[in-house]
Amino acid sequence: MFTGWLTCIPVVLRPIKKDKMTNCMETWMTILISIPLGALSSLIAWWILNYWIKPKIKFSEDISKTLIDSTAIYRFKFENYGKRKIVDNLLLAKLRIKGIRYKSIWEVIYLPLDNDKIPIIRPIKGEVKIIREVPRLELGLIELRNRKFLPQAIKEKIDNDTITLEELMNLGSESELILYVTGYDEISGAKKTFESKPYKVGDIKTGLFNKKGLNVE
Fold first, then answer.
1. Residue 173 contacts by C-beta under 8 Å, 6 or more apart in sequence?
2. Coil, strand, or helix at residue 215?
3. In 34-124, at which residue ranges do the beta strands (DSSP E only) sit?
4. Model confidence at 6: pLDDT above 50
5. Is 73 helix (H, G, I), strand (E, B) or coil?
6. What is the pTM for the complete model shown?
7. What contacts 195, CB < 8 A, 6 or more positions away?
8. Which residues are CB-contacts of 67 (< 8 A; sequence separation ≥ 6)?
């Protein structure tokens, strides 16, 4: 009675042409290969930028000591032997002394420098005029907050600008002085901090740094 209501609609399944299947496979292969290659290329570029041609600071092995009108002057020396400039540099000299108040406790004194800001540290390689930085300690300008645990006689010598670095470093049972240089890579903009070796009192040598290197003559 209701024949004709339901009609079977034939569905024709056509096979995918070979050339279309090949193109699809090639597209996926390209994607699978290009992604790891791109990541590897980026990794290599990042490594070259941050490790191979990065700025590098080399510090002098000794601290230079000279006398001017019986006043002791102490200087560090360092150079950028990398391949890029370091900009907006801050310098910090940290003296650590063990056993001033307590035998096992290290006290910290931040020593002022004549110039703790250097706009540009140029690489020595490829420069017509080689510039090596020679910051000077200003022991007579040690801030009051860094003196509170020092003996009164030492405080008076600081006020009179007659204190020596040897006197400060010999206050405790052990001491070390570290110079830090913090700046930015001129290309990557990455902030980098360079640290000298821990100088001991025996690393203080009388004489000037030679003009062509980092050694005390």
1. 98, 99, 103
2. coil
3. 57-59, 63-68, 71-75, 78-80, 86-98, 106-111, 117-121
4. no
5. strand
6. 0.75
7. 178, 179, 180
8. 73
